[in-house]
Amino acid sequence: MESTGVYWIREYEVLEQRAFEVILVNGRYAKNVPGRKPDVSEPAWLRQLYSCGLLRGSFRHDAEIATLRAYLRQRERLVEYAAAHIQHMQKVLIEMNRQLHRLVSDITGATGMRIVRPIVARAILTCWRPTVNSSIETIRTALVVTIGTNMSSR
C-alpha cells in the first residue's frame, strides 16, 4: 500500500485488523521507479516492485503508540489554537484601549479573567436595544450565570 496523505490510514488499520500482512510504501520511492503505473493496476504494480526489491516497507508504530502519537498531535494543535485565540483577545483589548497586558502576564489566568469578564459583560450590555426580545435584567442574569461575574455594579 502506498502512503499518500492520510487516506491510507483507515484502510491500513482495517487490513491489519483482519490479519493481512500490509506493507506500507513511501509514495516518493514508488514514483521514482521508472515504468508506467496506471491507477487501476497500482496495487499490482507496487507488489511487483516490492517483490523485485525495488521498494522497501516503511516503519509503522504499533497501534498503541500510533494512538498515543495521534493524541499528542491533537493536543499540540489545540494548544496552538488556544495561543491564537489569546492573541485575538489581547488585540481586542488593545483596540478597546485596555492595556491589560501591562498589568498581568497571562490574561487567561485567574487575575486576568477576573478583569476581562466584567469588560466583556459590560460590552454585551451596552449593545442591548429595546428591540431585543429579552429584557436587560434577563440578559444581566444570563451573564452572571454564564460569565460568572456580578453585574449589579453597572
Q: Using only CA atoms, what is the Rg?
A: 28 Å
Q: What is the H/E string? A: EHEHHHHH
Uncertain spans: 149-154
Briefly note the structural class of the backbone: mainly alpha
| Total number of strands | 2
The helix content is: 55-70%
Number of helices: 6
Q: State the distance separating the first and last CA atoms.
A: 65 Å
Strand order of the largest sheet: 1-2
Main sheet attributes: strand count, strand direction, barrel closure: 2 strands, parallel
Give the count of structural domains.
2
Essential attributes:
elongated; single chain; disordered C terminus; 57% helix; 154 residues; 3% strand; mainly alpha; 2 domains
3D architecture notes:
With 154 residues, the protein is mainly α. The protein has 2 domains: 2-51, no CATH class; 63-147, no CATH class. The protein is built from 6 helices and 2 strands, in the order βαβααααα. The protein has a two-stranded parallel ribbon. Strand 1, helix 1 (8-17) and strand 2 (25-26) form a beta-alpha-beta unit. The protein is elongated and about 75 Å long. Residues 149-154 have low confidence and may be disordered. It comes from Bradyrhizobium ivorense. GO terms for molecular function: DNA binding; transposase activity. Residues 1-95 form the Transposase IS110-like N-terminal domain. This is Transposase IS110-like N-terminal domain-containing protein.
